[in-house]
Amino acid sequence: MKSVIVFTVLTIWANVDSTPCLSSPSQWCDSLDSAIECGVLKQCLEANATRPKALAQSVQVELYFESLCPGCRQFLTTVLLPTWVLLQDIMSVTLVPFGNAQESGKEKPYTFVCQHGEEECLGNMIETCIMNTTGSQALQIIYCMEASTNVVKAGPMCVELYSPQTKWDSIMACVKGAQGNELMHQNAVKTGSLKPAHEYVPWVVIDGVHTDELQDKAMASLFTLVCSMYKGPKPEACGAVPKKRHRSYCHNE
């Protein structure tokens, strides 16, 4: 590895018991915890892109969340993204930023009220437009935003970092226009169609199914859950045992 870019990953939530970064940089992508602790998620992602693609169907992970929910931010930045960096060949991720928000209006434009206020509605809309505009870079961009002190203000920097060809003006045109309003409506419909109905966020759906057992396993160790559910030959990374993380939720009131 020729270069290392260090990221701040909400260290207040991290549970670090060792210092794997003192080992050879070639080993930093060997486990879930060392990748996130050493701040080389981008490099691990690029390295994983050269791995042979899996033959079996990937594990489908859907995350229903809201941009300013502390538990959602924790799960996305310290569990979901690091797991995907190491297991992207055997898992796919769908993000639905809406969470416990409420939609009103039967005709366009729809209006939205969010659990954590107008700033969260703006964050949800920005992240939705980022997904629509940047495609495969969206997960890293949203990770970058959610790992920052101010989710909304971090948007332009995170887009520049992971999708430099994308103009921030195009994101904001979506946010302020009919396209963003319709995309957020679709998030509302998808969230409202969950069976069972969501009671809190983060709400995790695995291969189209949500159960209390799957939620608990995902929160305790999504890494282990994806490895166990993948039907094909297990990748080498599945031999690692990640640390358990503290879990928290934003309940639907």
From TrEMBL:
User: What positions does the domain Saposin A-type occupy?
Assistant: 14-54
Entry's EC annotation: 1.8.-.-
Gene Ontology MF term list:
oxidoreductase activity, acting on a sulfur group of donors, disulfide as acceptor; protein-disulfide reductase [NAD(P)H] activity
Signal peptide position in this chain?
A: 1-18
Q: Which domain of life is it from?
A: Eukaryota
Biological process terms in GO annotation: cell redox homeostasis; hematopoietic stem cell proliferation; immune system process
Entry keyword set = Disulfide bond, Glycoprotein, Immunity, Lysosome, Oxidoreductase, Redox-active center, Secreted, Signal
GO cellular component term of the entry, any: lysosome
Per UniProt, subcellular location reads as: Secreted; Lysosome
Supply the InterPro entries for this chain. Interferon-induced_GILT (IPR004911), SAP_A (IPR003119)
Q: What family is this?
A: Belongs to the GILT family.
- Annotated function: Lysosomal thiol reductase that can reduce protein disulfide bonds. Facilitates the complete unfolding of proteins destined for lysosomal degradation. Plays an important role in antigen processing.
Oligomer status and interactors: Dimer; disulfide-linked.
Q: What protein is this chain from?
A: Gamma-interferon-inducible lysosomal thiol reductase
Task: State the organism named in the record.
Answer: Esox lucius
